[in-house]
Amino acid sequence: MAITRFPTGSAGIIVEHSYCLDKSRHRSEEHVSIYIPEQVDPLCDRLMTARARCDGMLRCIVQENEKKQNELSMHIEEGNIFLLAARKIGKDWVISAQPRAPERAALARLRSHSGGVFTCVRQCTLATAVARSSAVGVPVTLQIEHMVDQGSDDLPELNAMMVAVPYMASSDVSDESSPSSELECSSTELAKQLRIANDTPNAMPRRGSVVLETKRPKWNSQDELYELPFHGRANRASERNLQLTVLDGRQGTDGKTVLLHGKLDERLFALDFAYPLSPLHAFAICCSTFSW
């Protein structure tokens, strides 16, 4: 069966009738044509789709490659099920659904920009845009901004981040299976949401986007260190240890951790995440911390 890709339009199945004439009789046959648009990638869509609210936190681990620097793999902890792999090329991280996959087979790319900004885009969309000399305006699935946080002048600085994802936060908490409205949107829109969250902490996020921020640890003046419970998911001190919470304009940060990233061993990290994040979101956030 031949599969034809078209640059525009929606995927669909069309049932057609074809007729042929042989020496003995006229025969009617039915066949199916599958039209797959150029940018359709069901696997990438699945990995970009947020985890359901009712499923809670998914406990994963991220392993650094001992032999090759700047190579990571992500597994579901229970059963050690492989999810994603990443390899750093230049300043960017190329993310794929197969270990050691070539760049052309990648699902997504975490692009590094100036000022500690990162955007995650589909690799096929980016490649098409670059081929057309128009990489500006490529839809993104999340935007990350790194920053330095300091409670007061006499306290040590902390690595921090804010993240915007293009999901519609449902007000109906009983609708646990509510699907995300969009997998991608413009980086301009997500950057705007992060700017608003920075400038006006009590502002309500716009419909269609969710903003996350780093959970602030408490300063222990007696031991002169920051403290934040990781519930056994961080065995070693690291500048990459962090937790993210959802910003709610009505109440500020709602306090519920939706991502936990903690160092377990020399080359091993815990990476636990929940709604509104997807496996690709969580892994991209993890990759971005390697710039700290």
Question: What would you note in describing this structure?
Answer:
The chain is mainly β and 292 residues long. Helix content is 13%, strand content 40%. The protein is built from four helices and 17 strands. It has helices at residues 42-48, 123-131, 187-199, 279-288; strands at residues 4-6, 12-21, 26-37, 58-64, 71-76, 81-89, 92-96, 108-113, 117-122, 142-149, 158-165, 210-214, 218-220, 225-227, 242-248, 252-265, 268-273. It has a twelve-stranded antiparallel beta barrel with strand order 4-5-6-7-8-9-10-11-12-15-16-17. Strands 1-3-2 form a three-stranded mixed sheet, with no helix packed on it. A hairpin with a 2-residue loop joins strand 16 (252-265) and strand 17. It is globular and about 80 Å long. The termini are far apart.
- Structural class comes to mainly beta
Sequence of strands across the biggest β-sheet: 4-5-6-7-8-9-10-11-12-15-16-17
The sequence of SSEs as H and E is EEEHEEEEEEHEEHEEEEEEH
The percentage helix is 10-25%
Largest sheet: 12 strands, antiparallel, barrel
- Quote the average pLDDT: 82
Low-confidence stretches: 1-11, 13-21, 169-181
Helix segment count? 4
Distance between the termini: 49 Å
Q: Tell me the overall shape.
A: globular
| Rg estimate, integer Å | 22 Å
Strand content: 35-45%
Number of strands: 17
